[in-house]
Every structure is written in structure tokens, then in C-alpha cells.
TrEMBL record:
Natural source organism: Comamonas denitrificans
One GO term of the biological process aspect: cell wall organization
Upper taxonomic lineage: Bacteria, Pseudomonadati, Pseudomonadota, Betaproteobacteria, Burkholderiales
Designated name of the protein: Glutamate racemase
Active-site residues, as the UniProt record annotates them: C78 (proton donor/acceptor), C198 (proton donor/acceptor)
Primary enzyme class: isomerase
């Protein structure tokens, strides 16, 4: 692996556009850092695939980002990919700084007042040993209410470029899964915290907040991932020097799926122009 400099970009990837929520947090915390984002939409959803498939795709994407973009750090902006493949990636590239995302179990356990916490995530995440270890380690005094949300990430993915935003399907799925978890609110025995255990779900936050009520805290991991990324860059003396003026560093986004979908998502959630987006032909 080539030795990267501070001028090299950060690599970020997800099974689709969900990781753009992590990219939002990275841009806010590290505006001087150039970033390369890969949405593996052509091979989604990861959350309903086996570990071997997810590991193969993650390794292919990491290899692409290292060879074609000489990244200095890799953010695995997908809960399912982190659970299934981050150990595999560390074994393949031991010198590459890696940051994964995990459901905000520890913060939820510290924050809850009622002792009841809801967790929504993909089936791949909730079925992983990594997730079960998180629950055991950080919340033995907490009652966890866990729901696998089949189809929700895909509905959010599709909403980026459909004319009506696909909101009806997203609302119906959110309502089904929130109802299945049980009662939310500040009262005894109710869940007062909801963990968004998939980066896609951040983009359904307004719908979810409306369903659980204004007194329920929704937790995601974007800010924590940005903070950990900054720590690792500082430790490795890899922070990019500030550009002159207030210029924001360049962003390049790639997809293995439909280019218009990524362009629409980049414009809608990051305010980026269409020419920032391309198809990653080497990964299709």
C-alpha cells in the first residue's frame, strides 16, 4: 500500500446513499478534507445479504479506493458492512486507518431515563455477533427493543430520485416497525430513546420523530464517526492543511448503480452539483 499524505482524500463507502449522512457529518467537522464517496447501490442491499458477499464487496471497494484514489483513511459508513467486514478489512490492510459505524448503543444506555430503548436496524446488523456484543457490553441494565426493518433502507434509497419522494412507502414502513416495537414516550415502561442503527434511517428522521413523539431522543452515529476520523488523522499527522480563504475541499461521489439517483441525493442532502458524481466502472 502506498503511503498517503495529508493531501490525500478520505474514502467513504456504503451500500447506497445512506452513508451520505455520515459524509454530512464529516464535511461539517472537517471541511478542509477532500473526500471520495462510493455508493454500492448496484449491489445493495447489504443488510439482507450474507457475510461472505458483504466482505467481498467491501474488499473490492477498499482496493478500488486505495489503487485509484490513494486514500489516507477509510470510513465504512454502513452498519451492516462494519459488522460483517471491518475485521476482514483490517486483516487485509493493517496499515490503513479504518473507522466503522455501529448503532449508538452505549450513548443510548447512558441517556435513557426509563431504561427502555428501541433499536431499528437492518436484519444483517441485528443478527450479527458484533451487535449482540454491543448490547451485552453497554446495556445490561437496559431493556432493549430491537426491530429489523426489512425494506426501509431500499425505500429511502429509492426516494432520492422518484418524483413523489416515495414518502408514502417510507411512512408506511416506519409506522409498521415503530408500532411493532411498542409504546414510546417518557412514562415508566415506555421507550424514551430510539437508536437509528442504519445510516439510511437518518434521512427518515422527521417521519420517525413524528411517530415516536417529541419527547423521544433519536440517536445516530454521524458525529461520533467524524470525531473518531479527526482523532485518527491527528494521530497519523494526516490532517489536510486549510486551503486559502473559506474554500471547502473537493468532493467526488461514485456509484455502482443509477447515476441520476446519486446525483439527486447529492444535490438534495449535500447541495452538491451533478458533476461531482460519476459511475465507478471498475466496481460495477
Amino acid at each position: 500500500m502506498q503511503t498517503a499524505s495529508g493531501m490525500a482524500p478520505i474514502g467513504i463507502f456504503d451500500s447506497g446513499i445512506g452513508g451520505l449522512s455520515v459524509l454530512q457529518a464529516l464535511r461539517a467537522a472537517l471541511p478542509h478534507e477532500p473526500c471520495i464517496y462510493v455508493a454500492d447501490s448496484g449491489h445493495a442491499p447489504y443488510g439482507e445479504r450474507g457475510d461472505a458477499f458483504v466482505q467481498q464487496r467491501c474488499a473490492a471497494i477498499a482496493d478500488y479506493l486505495l489503487k485509484h484514489h490513494t486514500i489516507k483513511l477509510l470510513v465504512v459508513a454502513c452498519n451492516t458492512a462494519t459488522a460483517a467486514a471491518i475485521g476482514h478489512l483490517r486483516a487485509l490492510w493493517p496499515q490503513l486507518p479504518l473507522v466503522g459505524v455501529e448503532p449508538a448503543i452505549k450513548p443510548a444506555a447512558l441517556q435513557t431515563g426509563t431504561g427502555h430503548v428501541g433499536v431499528i436496524a437492518t436484519r444483517g446488523t441485528v443478527g450479527s455477533s458484533r451487535f449482540q456484543n454491543l448490547l451485552h457490553t453497554h446495556g445490561q441494565q437496559v431493556h432493549w427493543h430491537v426491530q429489523a426493518c426489512d425494506g426501509l433502507a431500499q425505500a429511502i434509497e429509492a426516494s432520492t430520485w422518484q418524483a413523489d419522494g416515495n414518502l408514502a412507502e417510507i411512512e408506511a414502513l416506519c409506522a409498521r416497525y415503530i408500532s411493532a416495537l411498542g409504546p414510546f414516550g417518557p412514562n415508566s415502561g415506555h421507550m424514551d430513546t430510539l437508536v437509528l442503527g442504519c445510516t439510511h434511517y437518518v434521512f427518515a428522521r422527521p417521519v420517525l420523530q413524528r411517530l415516536v413523539g417529541p419527547h423521544v431522543h433519536l440517536l445516530d452515529t454521524g458525529k461520533a464517526v467524524a470525531q473518531q476520523t479527526q482523532r485518527l488523522l491527528q494521530q497519523g499527522q494526516l490532517l489536510a492543511p486549510p486551503p486559502p480563504g473559506t474554500t471547502t475541499a473537493a468532493m467526488q461521489l461514485f456509484t455502482t448503480g443509477q447515476l441520476p439517483a446519486l446525483q439527486a441525493a447529492a444535490q438534495r442532502w449535500l447541495g452538491l452539483p451533478a458533476n461531482c458524481c460519476s459511475v465507478a466502472q471498475a466496481l460495477v
